[in-house]
Amino acid sequence: MAASSGTWFAERMGTPDDSLHPRVITVCKRKLGGGRGCWQAYEIDYDDDGRWLYTPAGSVFRSSDGESDERCEVEGGDGPGLDSLVLVPAAAQHWLAGWRVPQRALHIAVDVCDWVRRDAGLVVFLDWELDPFRLRSGIVGVEDLDDFLDVRAAGLLTPDDAERALEEAAWVERSLRQQSGPFDGRGDRRLAEAGQLSLPALVEVPHPFEL
Known about the structure:
Layout: H1 8-12, E1 24-31, E2 36-47, E3 50-55, E4 60-63, E5 69-71, E6 84-88, E7 95-100, E8 106-118, E9 122-127, E10 131-135, E11 140-143, H2 145-153, H3 159-178, H4 186-195
Parallel strand pairs: 1-9
Antiparallel strand pairs: 1-2, 2-3, 2-4, 3-6, 4-5, 6-7, 7-8, 8-9, 8-10, 10-11
């Protein structure tokens, strides 16, 4: 278990004064075909694993056309959405991982990606179309292999990036199967603890093409 670095989350958990909120981060996902979407999250902690970003239920996901504002979990979905947690790892690692609450059959969903921006208040990543996942049932796999082949055939991924994407997807899939860090219980614990903070939903999401 990576050590916490004394961030807002570690300092504020269990304190009576909840008037101070952690920093809000905007996350933007870019597709190789040109589509975009974004949402916001609270940076609740950072440690050796990376930056842990929490999005409360009722927060808004905004699509690339700027017209579709949905209550998210984190990307789309019906109803008011559900709490979720994202880990932004070190820049050398080409993936972004999301944890879902126990009500969802999907436990951990990972986007293999390239980093476009990683500012203090903004994370922008380019989706490489390979999506390792783990279900609550224990099933592990990689989705969107057909989309990955399509973008390769269209020349939207360089050979080097395609090879890196396959290597990264294989490493994440293996780590999910082995339930090795950071894909063990640490994300679930952070998500459960963050849900107890009663942080307000994030609804002031910028237009994706403003980022």
